[in-house]
Amino acid sequence: MRQTIILLLALLSIVVACKRRSTQESEDKQAKQLLQGLWTTDDTEEPAMLVKGDSIYYPDSASMPVRFWIFQDSIYMQGQNLNGYKILKQTNAFFSFNNQNGDEVNLFRSSNKDLMASFGYHVYAMNLFDKSGSDTIVSTDMGFYDCQIRTCTTSERVIKSTYNDNGIEVDNAYLDNVSTLTLRSRDSVVYKHDFLKQEFSNYIPRDFIAHCILRNLEFDRADRKALFFNATIGIPDASSGYVVEVRITPDGKMSKRLR
Questions:
Q1: pLDDT at 15 (0 to 100)
Q2: Residue partners of 78: CB distance under 8 A and separation at least 6
Q3: 99: alpha, beta or left? (left if phi > 0; alpha if psi -120 to 50)
Q4: pLDDT value at position 101?
Q5: I need a surface site. Which of 44, 73, 106, 117 has the fewest CB within 10 A?
Q6: What's the pLDDT tens digit per position in 152-161?
Q7: Do 151 and 235 belong to one domain?
Q8: For 160, phi and psi rounded to 5 degrees?
Q9: Are residues 164 and 137 located together in one domain of the fold?
Q10: What is the pLDDT, as a whole number, of residue 2?
Q11: Contact yes or no for 213/174 (Cβ under 8 A)
């Protein structure tokens, strides 16, 4: 049964890839050329998107540009996911389509060069400058322990899809984290390790962990035999996630379990 499901998913991926290739090869180049330029949402000239070549850029330094093409009566945008939006009307000065929820989005061409500054940025990760740390002294039957934790971003990028004000799916970039735990007793290092999300992959669905980051590592409790820490792995800026308990004994041995 498992092999059948895997085969069906593989066939579905092939069908989707073939359909995407077909629409790209048969794209309406005239309509694509007509869309080139700067577009605003209304008469207040709030910048909505900049169309340049094969890409659409957004006035948000956290949103990644997407590849696009027009085929028949729809505009397709290829980010982390492929989305198609039905075009309602297109002229040289006006572009209207239905967003993800079926709401009508109306865009107006603008020649205001001052608005170009809204697109003059490099896309940065939402949590680029995030750092956290804690230094906890724990009194146990085994003695006093100094638990120092430092969490900061790595270079590994994780993409999270969300929706902008116009109901268009956009991709926001995040960086994964590394949590460094240093455990000392009487000024001697008992345990030191850099924790990455990959170390917890056995406790998290394979198709889920690629979209997650290691949010944090924090001290939880201690008993007569060990100290316990909680590692939280989840979708960036989401309220839920997986919590894996990390158990460390005074001799520096470590074990994990899903909470």
A1: 43
A2: 20, 66, 67, 68
A3: beta
A4: 92
A5: 44
A6: 999 999 999 9
A7: yes
A8: -120, 125
A9: yes
A10: 38
A11: yes
Boundary-marking domain end, from 119, 148, 177: 119
- Asked if residue 246 is part of any domain, the answer here is yes
**How many CB atoms sit inside 10 A of residue 109's CB?**
17
For 38-71, write each residue's pLDDT tens digit.
999 976 789 999 999 999 999 988 899 999 999 9
DSSP string, 222-236: E-SS-EEEEEEEEST
Put simply, whether the predicted model's pTM sits higher than 0.70 gets the answer yes
What is the DSSP code string of the chain?
-HHHHHHHHHHHHHHHHHHHHHHHHT--HHHHHHT-EEEESSTT--EEEEEETTEEE-S-TTBPPEEEEEETTEEEEESSSEEEEEEEEE-SSEEEEE-TTS-EEEEEEE--GGGGGGG-S----TTTT-EEEEEEEEEETTEEEEEEEEEEEEEEEEEEEEE-TTS-EEEEEEEEEEEEEEEEETTEEEEEEEE-GGGGGGGS-HHHHTT-EEEEEEEEEE-SS-EEEEEEEESTT-S--EEEEEEE-TTS-EEEEE-
Phi, psi at 39, each rounded to 5°: -130, 140
Q: Which domain holds residue 226?
A: 131-258
CATH of the domain at 23: 2.40.128
Confidence bin at 146 (pLDDT 50/70/90): very high
Number of domains in the chain: 2
Supply 224's token pair.
Answer: 């007569």
Q: What is the pLDDT of residue 12?
A: 43
For residue 74 the two structure tokens come to: 């729809």
In a domain, 6, yes or no: yes
pLDDT at 243 over 80: yes
